[in-house]
Specification:
The protein is an all-alpha fold and about 270 residues long. It is built from 13 helices and no strands. It has helices at about 15-30, 30-60, 60-65, 70-95, 100-105, 110-140, 150-175, 180-185, 190-195, 205-210, 215-230, 235-265, 265-270. The two termini are about 35 Å apart.
Amino acid sequence: MSMDSTGSIAMSPRRVFAMVLRHWYLLKASWPRIFDLMYWPTVQMLMWGFLQLYLAQNSGFFAQAGGAFIGAVMLWDILFRGQLGFSISFLEEMYSRNMGNLMMSPLRPMEFVAALMIMSFIRLAIGMVPVSFLAIAFFGFNLWGLGLGLAVFFLNLFLTSWAVAILVSGLLLRNGLGAESLAWGIMFLFLPLTCVYYPVAVLPTWLQTVAWMLPPTYVFEGMRALVIDHVFRADLMVQAFALNGVLFAAAVVAFLKLLQSARRQGTLLQGGD
């Protein structure tokens, strides 16, 4: 068991990997879980893709916009499913009443968080990689063709999704499964404000200020600039990274504070409503 310079237990990749392995075995042993990861992104992509196809045939603007609509759908799924993948793995531990055991083990809270972030990535890859190839086959939209833009969009969306999921996990630790609805629905608060399907200019002036405070807004604006105008807006991505840094740091601090509170109040071992 390694120690850092302060004498506390150092971050251990082996403990992180052990947690990832636990959730990987749980995932691969359940075909309904794997099916669910692929089902909803596929349905979303097909539904909005066919709608875009219809609009492209009946509207000059959408014909010019090309894949902006379906691109927005797929990037939204990265944001939503990144958060949900993290939260579901966290909820698995609460359902099995294993949280108290984990927190009394040598596993550090940030190692636990790191493992859930990795599982979030794995869950998203299982769901979205096949869907991205279906989008090429059905609609000729190549998400991978966005190149460097895709990598930057992807990282920014993941940072936001993880920050939200970490905060929700802290609230679940403190309030128990009575707060479970946050894990399933909180990301939908971002849907109208981050301008997934329309530019920020559509919003009222006062609401535009709120929208620009959210990192995903910069990603969706950047995606439209890349797909429609064929311009990569590096300035938008830098601003998104800066906001994500603040959001992620705040979420981690809140999680650790809520964990301390859960330990003091005894809710860590209860986990019920």
